[in-house]
């Protein structure tokens, strides 16, 4: 249960900090943090929680990461479902908190689910921040998640300097957001996408499938690549 609570709190912090920065701080005229600030916020959530609770649960905070570590031989299949449930509950709890805070704003009129990026949701086509197609979004999410897992698997390898793993992983997520916020509003994390899509509804919820399938396939590909090609099997 400690591992599941660690995954819950870690994913909660990721969604609250990352999506919260997009909702509250990104668009303030002359003072907003913009895409760069949101990218950094997502990276910092993972970096801080990796050191806070990573030693308890492994610091996945993302169903795709759990699948990637399983494919790479670092995670037991019997724990996949429980980890994913804990991650999704943490993300939903964070989204509920964000919605409650937004509802406290004087001019809040509800979530407009006809707009790209509403409530920090992910999307493609008309719901991509810059109008990228479904195929472009799929490839971006697949490749970025694959490289995210390669960083995770390499940085946490027994031959790597594990003390700096959290920094490498956090900076990798920052870079991923710098690349892909204009494409899909950046997922690479099915639980993060699910929590925002559920509260947004409409087309973003209909498009949610892509933000499960592409990241998980990319993560599994990374696990296989690292295990079969990159991993040093010498003692």
Topology overview:
Layout: H1 2-25, H2 34-57, H3 63-71, H4 80-103, H5 134-155, H6 165-184, H7 190-200, H8 202-206, H9 210-230
Helix pairs in contact: 1-2, 1-4, 2-6, 3-4, 3-5, 3-9, 4-7, 5-6, 5-9, 7-9
What does this structure look like?
With 235 residues, this protein is an all-alpha fold. Helix content is 68%, strand content 0%. It has nine helices and no strands. It has helices spanning 2-25, 34-57, 63-71, 80-103, 134-155, 165-184, 190-200, 202-206, 210-230. It is globular and about 60 Å long. The model has no long low-confidence stretch (mean pLDDT 95).
Label this structure with key terms.
235 residues; mainly alpha; 0% strand; globular
């Amino acid at each position: 249960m400690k591992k599941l609570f660690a995954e819950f709190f870690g994913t909660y912090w990721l969604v609250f900090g990352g999506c919260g920065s997009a909702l509250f701080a990104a668009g303030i005229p002359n003072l907003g943090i913009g895409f760069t600030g949101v990218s950094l916020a997502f990276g910092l959530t993972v970096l801080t929680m990796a050191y806070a609770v990573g030693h308890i649960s492994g610091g996945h905070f993302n169903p795709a990461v759990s699948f990637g570590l399983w494919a790479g031989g670092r995670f037991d299949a019997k724990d996949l479902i429980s980890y994913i449930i804990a991650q999704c509950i943490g993300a939903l709890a964070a989204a509920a908190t964000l919605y409650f805070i937004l509802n406290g704003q004087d001019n809040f009129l509800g979530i407009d689910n006809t707009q790209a990026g509403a409530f920090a949701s992910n999307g493609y086509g008309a719901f991509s921040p810059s109008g990228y197609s479904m195929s472009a979004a799929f490839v971006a999410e697949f490749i970025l998640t694959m490289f995210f897992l390669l960083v995770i698997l390499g940085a946490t390898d027994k031959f790597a300097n594990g003390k700096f793993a959290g920094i490498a992983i956090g900076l990798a997520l920052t870079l991923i957001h710098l690349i892909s916020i204009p494409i899909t509003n950046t997922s690479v994390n099915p639980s993060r996408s699910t929590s925002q899509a559920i509260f947004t509804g409409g087309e973003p919820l209909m498009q949610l499938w892509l933000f499960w399938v592409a990241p998980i396939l990319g993560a599994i590909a990374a696990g296989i690549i690292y295990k079969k090609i990159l991993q040093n099997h010498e003692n």
